[in-house]
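Hi team,

Filling in the usual template for the complex we talked about on Friday. All components are listed, including any nucleic acid strands or ligand strings, so the model treats them as one assembly.

SUBMITTER: L.P.
PURPOSE: interface mapping
COMPONENTS: two
RESIDUES: 775
SEQUENCES:
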Amino acid sequence: MDLAYTAEEAAFRDEVRDFVTANLPADIARKVLEHRRLEKSDYARWQDILAKQGWLAGHWPVEHGGCGWTPVQNHIFDEETAAAGAPRLIPFGLNMVAPVIMAYGSPWQKEHYLSRIRTNHDWWCQGYSEPGSGSDLASLKTRAVRDGDHYLVNGQKTWTTLAQYADMIFCLVRTDTTVKKQEGISFLLIDMHSPGITVRPIVTLDEEHEVNEVFFEDVKVPVANLVGEEGKGWTYAKYLLGHERTGIAGVGASKRELDTLKHIAKIQRKNGRPLGDDPGFAARMAQVEIDLLALEMTVMRVLASRGKAPGPEASILKIKGTEIQQALTELMMEALGPYALPFRPEAMTLDTEDELVGPDYAAPLAARYFNYRKVTIYGGSNEIQRNIIAQMVLGL
Amino acid sequence: MDFSFSEEQQLLRESLARYVEREYTFEKRRAIQRSAEGFSHEVWSAFAEMGLLGLTTPEEYGGYGGSAVDTLVVSQVLGSGLVVEPYLASVVLGTGLVARAGSTAQKESLLPAAARGELLLTLAHAEPDSRYELAEVATSARRQGNQFVLQGHKAVVPWGAQADRLIVSARTAGGPRDAQGISLFVIERGMKGVGARDYRTIDGQRAAEVKLDDVLVGADAVLGPLDGALPLLEAIADVGAAALCAEAVGVMETLNAQTLEYIKTRQQFGQPIGRFQVLQHRAVDMFIHLEQSKSIALLAAVRADSADAAERRRAVSAAKAHLGRSGRAVTQMAIQLHGGMGVTDELPASHYAKRLTMIDFHLGDADFHVERFVADARG
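RESULT (copied from the run log):
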């Protein structure tokens, strides 16, 4: 039993920290730390910097162009980049479709798509949910009909995160309507610039444009873009869900947000004293901090038990991780008192000439609280995660 | 980073678990509880033979010089088997204090005998109004020539009427809440002026109200620095709290398993009630509490021996607060999921629930540790 990092891991942490200090653009970090809106160019700029260093896909195996980082190294990388205020890496290519292509893709798909993901060439999005298929994903209806050397795709995907920026979408589509619903699904890689694709924004309750509806009307997709075998899409989707998901706990980002919360609680006043000195508020902050400490240890335990399938453990991490993220946004909003009320989307950019209302950190926090209600819903709602644990771990 | 237990630790766990499973049946536990002393000398001797009672005793005094992680291994198994014997009181706290601060004479006279299971120790610290505050000591130790006269009331002393030696905290200087001026004394239970009113605790153990009425002890009874015992008390209380967290994890693990088994077999509406999603999700929440508790209890054990007091206090308070809350949540769900059976004396589950709940009331409850966590961070 030894909770210390090895000398190599500590050196790796220093290396990452030094690199981030020297290379993370200050304007991007400021946006992240102050909860402002990130543009496509902000994500792209940071991912280009990492790609140039060879670190964008550092956790990929060396044979696919990664650095072969261990899970612990990857965790350190997440923690250090998050602490410094780096934007999250857009996961759809790097962490979601890439492992599926590595495991089941054709040589051409590996050659073509993996290198483009690694070098930040393509922006990917995820085509899973449909209007009638949320938690019951296997009921999806988007149809792909084989026609010679291509498929003709018709249907609709929804809640597609940042589809407005995407070059590619990985889609679950129905290729067979005559078999059991899980067995008629295939996994297609579709060029978002194809004729017949329309992206329509969904404005969320914070008046932001983050998610979209994606419509497919007679979209031609080459058969070469089918991953693996026809009818095996559900298997690949499940593989994706169970793969390398310790990152979903979001420990690094939550640690950073906890620091921000403490900073805000020092400045906000209650009864003439810092809000953070109020015993009630301080106790609630401490409880989140303690939960986060336990979660970090749980993540470490999962990382250390390498070799076992990460599926069910990942569900615990998703549930606790998102509960903590929400608790932090909630406390930050509450910390503002009445200054949680002013709603000023124009203050979400850095270069606003608008005069601020209230403290300079105030504007995004209530909006962010509402935005973060999404985290217990997306990626398999926390209720679905509980179903997974009930079945896979508890045998219920 | 390495989360594996050493070969010795695994062996220790297996042999103790085997003993508890085979010998410490629920019916036997019930009989032990109802016995005059409330614990079993036979079990205690068996523990001594297994090396449990000298686990953290220095090797030169007949022990194995083990760490808080070793204590975690043992405590977790004792929790799983709901063992009532005074391991925490005598081995973790009693032996721990003597090993840390005792004079050579005290170590020689107490440690080997305790490790052999021939001498039972306990810490008599809390008082009627002190709750969990370690610096709050009203019991006085008045100097009389080369001796001390102890006067006061020690509250809810675990195994206070069974222990052969009590390590009593008393004020040799300062006011009732001063950090300075607290000293520890080793006294014999049979000494003139020592009264111990024995009672059962709701979690199946024993405790006593200990009254000290002009108890006369020599200067050689002083354990550790005169007037300056608070840091020592704080350190040992943290080691004890970490052990309690490990015990709680063991209790929780068994309670969860019993509950899971129950909802898989209990039939209603023509099917096992575990088919119902609302119960499944409760069971999952219990499981998540357990996994998070295991994590934080490990952190506490690893940090409990740390020379860095701030690091030790932070981890232990986090863990004890976490176990207090998750223990409460898990026991409430476990009883609810057992339905009417959950509130019967017949079922082991209700006894596990009582112990898990009451662990919070030892060495600082969740509120106490959250407050300490906050205060320490503020500095």
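MY TAKE: The mean pLDDT of chain B is 97. DSSP finds eleven helices and ten strands in chain B.

Thanks, L.
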